[in-house]
Fold:
Amino acid sequence: MIRTAILILLAGPAIAQDSFSLPSGCTGYVTVQKRGCIVSHLFTCQSDPTGHQRRVDMNDTGLIYLGTIDAETQWIESTHVVANSTERLLPNAADSASFTQLRATGRDDWDFETEDNLGLRSRNVGTDEIISQFASIDGIGLQITAFTITVTDPATGQFLWSGVGQEYIHPEWRTFLSGARTITTPTETYDTDNTPVEFSFPGETGFLAVNPRYDCDVVISGPVPDATLAAIKRN
Structure:
Protein backbone atom coordinates (compact mmCIF):
# COMPACT_ATOMS: atom_id res chain seq x y z
CA MET A 1 0.00 0.00 0.00
CA ILE A 2 1.51 3.33 -1.08
CA ARG A 3 0.45 5.24 2.04
CA THR A 4 2.15 2.66 4.26
CA ALA A 5 5.25 2.69 2.05
CA ILE A 6 5.60 6.46 2.40
CA LEU A 7 5.19 6.35 6.18
CA ILE A 8 7.86 3.68 6.46
CA LEU A 9 10.09 5.53 4.04
CA LEU A 10 10.00 8.76 6.01
CA ALA A 11 10.09 7.32 9.50
CA GLY A 12 13.22 7.63 11.60
CA PRO A 13 16.51 8.05 9.73
CA ALA A 14 14.87 8.80 6.39
CA ILE A 15 13.94 12.27 7.64
CA ALA A 16 17.64 13.16 7.66
CA GLN A 17 17.95 12.57 3.90
CA ASP A 18 18.22 15.60 1.65
CA SER A 19 15.76 14.24 -0.93
CA PHE A 20 12.33 12.70 -0.61
CA SER A 21 12.27 9.22 -2.18
CA LEU A 22 9.04 8.38 -3.96
CA PRO A 23 7.63 4.86 -3.65
CA SER A 24 8.19 2.44 -6.51
CA GLY A 25 5.88 3.09 -9.44
CA CYS A 26 5.35 6.77 -8.57
CA THR A 27 6.57 9.84 -10.46
CA GLY A 28 6.89 13.33 -9.01
CA TYR A 29 6.15 16.32 -11.20
CA VAL A 30 6.64 19.33 -8.94
CA THR A 31 7.91 20.37 -5.51
CA VAL A 32 6.31 23.46 -3.98
CA GLN A 33 7.99 25.50 -1.27
CA LYS A 34 5.24 27.30 0.64
CA ARG A 35 4.92 29.88 3.33
CA GLY A 36 4.25 28.58 6.81
CA CYS A 37 7.31 26.27 6.77
CA ILE A 38 5.77 23.70 4.40
CA VAL A 39 7.26 21.89 1.40
CA SER A 40 4.90 19.81 -0.76
CA HIS A 41 5.57 17.13 -3.36
CA LEU A 42 2.96 16.33 -5.99
CA PHE A 43 3.15 12.98 -7.76
CA THR A 44 1.24 10.26 -9.58
CA CYS A 45 1.41 6.47 -9.15
CA GLN A 46 0.89 3.76 -11.75
CA SER A 47 -1.31 1.73 -9.42
CA ASP A 48 -3.85 4.55 -8.96
CA PRO A 49 -6.94 5.12 -11.12
CA THR A 50 -6.47 7.45 -14.09
CA GLY A 51 -6.53 11.10 -13.01
CA HIS A 52 -5.65 10.47 -9.38
CA GLN A 53 -2.68 12.29 -7.89
CA ARG A 54 -1.04 12.37 -4.51
CA ARG A 55 0.62 14.97 -2.30
CA VAL A 56 2.85 14.82 0.74
CA ASP A 57 3.59 17.79 2.98
CA MET A 58 6.61 18.15 5.24
CA ASN A 59 7.52 20.76 7.80
CA ASP A 60 10.77 21.20 9.72
CA THR A 61 9.98 18.12 11.86
CA GLY A 62 9.17 15.73 8.98
CA LEU A 63 6.11 14.28 7.30
CA ILE A 64 2.79 15.80 8.36
CA TYR A 65 0.28 15.05 5.61
CA LEU A 66 -0.55 12.60 2.80
CA GLY A 67 -3.46 13.22 0.45
CA THR A 68 -5.06 11.84 -2.70
CA ILE A 69 -7.37 13.69 -5.09
CA ASP A 70 -9.02 12.59 -8.31
CA ALA A 71 -9.18 14.43 -11.64
CA GLU A 72 -12.02 16.61 -10.31
CA THR A 73 -10.00 17.44 -7.16
CA GLN A 74 -12.34 15.47 -4.92
CA TRP A 75 -10.74 14.67 -1.54
CA ILE A 76 -10.40 10.90 -1.95
CA GLU A 77 -8.23 10.37 1.14
CA SER A 78 -6.46 12.65 3.62
CA THR A 79 -4.06 11.47 6.31
CA HIS A 80 -2.95 13.85 9.05
CA VAL A 81 0.15 12.18 10.45
CA VAL A 82 0.53 14.07 13.74
CA ALA A 83 -3.13 13.56 14.64
CA ASN A 84 -3.01 9.93 13.39
CA SER A 85 -6.24 10.59 11.51
CA THR A 86 -7.32 9.49 8.04
CA GLU A 87 -10.46 10.76 6.30
CA ARG A 88 -11.99 9.18 3.21
CA LEU A 89 -14.60 10.47 0.80
CA LEU A 90 -17.99 8.79 1.13
CA PRO A 91 -19.98 7.85 -2.00
CA ASN A 92 -23.22 9.42 -3.22
CA ALA A 93 -22.31 13.06 -2.60
CA ALA A 94 -25.18 15.55 -2.71
CA ASP A 95 -23.01 17.71 -5.00
CA SER A 96 -19.54 16.44 -5.89
CA ALA A 97 -16.64 18.86 -6.28
CA SER A 98 -15.90 19.47 -9.96
CA PHE A 99 -12.74 21.08 -11.28
CA THR A 100 -14.27 20.88 -14.75
CA GLN A 101 -17.29 22.92 -13.62
CA LEU A 102 -15.06 25.50 -11.95
CA ARG A 103 -12.95 25.97 -15.07
CA ALA A 104 -15.96 26.10 -17.39
CA THR A 105 -18.17 28.51 -15.42
CA GLY A 106 -15.86 30.17 -12.89
CA ARG A 107 -17.72 28.69 -9.93
CA ASP A 108 -18.27 25.29 -8.33
CA ASP A 109 -20.51 24.50 -5.36
CA TRP A 110 -20.08 21.24 -3.46
CA ASP A 111 -21.68 19.23 -0.69
CA PHE A 112 -20.16 15.90 0.33
CA GLU A 113 -19.35 13.77 3.36
CA THR A 114 -16.15 12.21 4.67
CA GLU A 115 -15.53 9.59 7.34
CA ASP A 116 -12.41 9.21 9.46
CA ASN A 117 -10.70 6.11 10.82
CA LEU A 118 -12.77 6.33 14.04
CA GLY A 119 -16.03 6.29 12.09
CA LEU A 120 -16.75 9.99 12.62
CA ARG A 121 -18.47 11.67 9.68
CA SER A 122 -18.27 15.27 8.50
CA ARG A 123 -20.45 17.14 6.01
CA ASN A 124 -18.44 19.59 3.88
CA VAL A 125 -20.40 22.33 2.12
CA GLY A 126 -18.71 25.10 0.18
CA THR A 127 -17.88 27.01 -2.96
CA ASP A 128 -14.85 27.67 -5.15
CA GLU A 129 -14.89 30.71 -7.42
CA ILE A 130 -12.28 32.03 -9.84
CA ILE A 131 -11.62 35.69 -8.99
CA SER A 132 -8.60 36.36 -11.20
CA GLN A 133 -7.64 34.71 -14.49
CA PHE A 134 -3.90 35.13 -14.07
CA ALA A 135 -1.31 35.29 -11.32
CA SER A 136 2.39 34.53 -11.62
CA ILE A 137 4.37 32.92 -8.79
CA ASP A 138 7.99 32.03 -9.50
CA GLY A 139 7.22 32.20 -13.21
CA ILE A 140 4.28 29.77 -13.04
CA GLY A 141 0.95 31.01 -14.37
CA LEU A 142 -1.95 30.34 -12.01
CA GLN A 143 -5.56 31.40 -11.51
CA ILE A 144 -6.72 32.82 -8.18
CA THR A 145 -9.79 31.40 -6.48
CA ALA A 146 -11.81 32.32 -3.42
CA PHE A 147 -13.37 29.60 -1.29
CA THR A 148 -15.79 29.11 1.56
CA ILE A 149 -16.34 25.91 3.52
CA THR A 150 -18.55 24.96 6.44
CA VAL A 151 -18.11 21.58 8.12
CA THR A 152 -20.83 20.08 10.32
CA ASP A 153 -21.81 16.80 11.92
CA PRO A 154 -24.24 15.30 9.37
CA ALA A 155 -26.22 13.50 12.05
CA THR A 156 -26.81 16.45 14.37
CA GLY A 157 -26.00 19.53 12.29
CA GLN A 158 -23.49 20.60 14.94
CA PHE A 159 -20.99 23.17 13.66
CA LEU A 160 -17.42 21.82 13.59
CA TRP A 161 -15.43 24.47 11.73
CA SER A 162 -15.50 26.82 8.77
CA GLY A 163 -13.01 28.51 6.50
CA VAL A 164 -12.74 31.34 4.00
CA GLY A 165 -9.75 32.34 1.95
CA GLN A 166 -7.84 32.40 -1.28
CA GLU A 167 -6.28 29.57 -3.26
CA TYR A 168 -4.64 29.04 -6.65
CA ILE A 169 -5.33 26.55 -9.41
CA HIS A 170 -3.18 25.25 -12.23
CA PRO A 171 -5.42 24.17 -15.12
CA GLU A 172 -3.05 21.56 -16.57
CA TRP A 173 -2.05 20.11 -13.19
CA ARG A 174 -5.74 19.97 -12.16
CA THR A 175 -4.95 20.82 -8.58
CA PHE A 176 -5.43 23.54 -5.98
CA LEU A 177 -2.56 25.29 -4.23
CA SER A 178 -3.22 26.85 -0.86
CA GLY A 179 -3.15 30.53 -0.03
CA ALA A 180 -4.12 32.64 2.97
CA ARG A 181 -7.19 31.54 4.90
CA THR A 182 -9.16 32.19 8.06
CA ILE A 183 -10.37 29.20 10.07
CA THR A 184 -13.15 29.43 12.65
CA THR A 185 -13.88 26.73 15.23
CA PRO A 186 -16.48 26.79 18.00
CA THR A 187 -13.87 28.33 20.32
CA GLU A 188 -11.55 30.49 18.22
CA THR A 189 -10.65 32.09 14.89
CA TYR A 190 -7.16 32.08 13.44
CA ASP A 191 -5.29 32.66 10.17
CA THR A 192 -2.96 30.43 8.17
CA ASP A 193 -0.90 31.15 5.06
CA ASN A 194 0.69 28.40 2.97
CA THR A 195 0.92 30.40 -0.25
CA PRO A 196 3.37 28.95 -2.81
CA VAL A 197 6.70 30.74 -3.09
CA GLU A 198 8.90 28.51 -5.28
CA PHE A 199 8.36 25.67 -7.74
CA SER A 200 10.98 23.04 -8.60
CA PHE A 201 10.67 20.47 -11.37
CA PRO A 202 12.49 17.21 -12.14
CA GLY A 203 16.17 17.87 -12.72
CA GLU A 204 16.11 21.24 -10.96
CA THR A 205 17.72 22.13 -7.65
CA GLY A 206 15.13 21.82 -4.90
CA PHE A 207 13.05 19.11 -6.54
CA LEU A 208 11.95 16.57 -3.86
CA ALA A 209 13.74 18.59 -1.16
CA VAL A 210 12.71 17.55 2.35
CA ASN A 211 13.50 20.85 4.07
CA PRO A 212 10.98 23.72 3.93
CA ARG A 213 12.52 27.13 3.40
CA TYR A 214 10.00 29.84 4.29
CA ASP A 215 8.71 31.07 7.67
CA CYS A 216 10.38 28.27 9.62
CA ASP A 217 11.79 30.81 12.05
CA VAL A 218 8.33 32.19 12.85
CA VAL A 219 7.29 31.40 16.42
CA ILE A 220 3.71 30.11 16.78
CA SER A 221 2.25 30.69 20.23
CA GLY A 222 0.27 27.77 21.61
CA PRO A 223 -0.77 24.52 19.93
CA VAL A 224 -2.07 24.47 16.37
CA PRO A 225 -5.79 23.62 16.46
CA ASP A 226 -6.93 20.36 14.87
CA ALA A 227 -9.08 22.24 12.37
CA THR A 228 -5.91 23.40 10.64
CA LEU A 229 -5.23 19.79 9.73
CA ALA A 230 -8.77 19.25 8.54
CA ALA A 231 -8.66 22.39 6.42
CA ILE A 232 -5.64 21.28 4.39
CA LYS A 233 -6.91 18.44 2.22
CA ARG A 234 -6.35 19.06 -1.45
CA ASN A 235 -3.80 21.87 -1.53
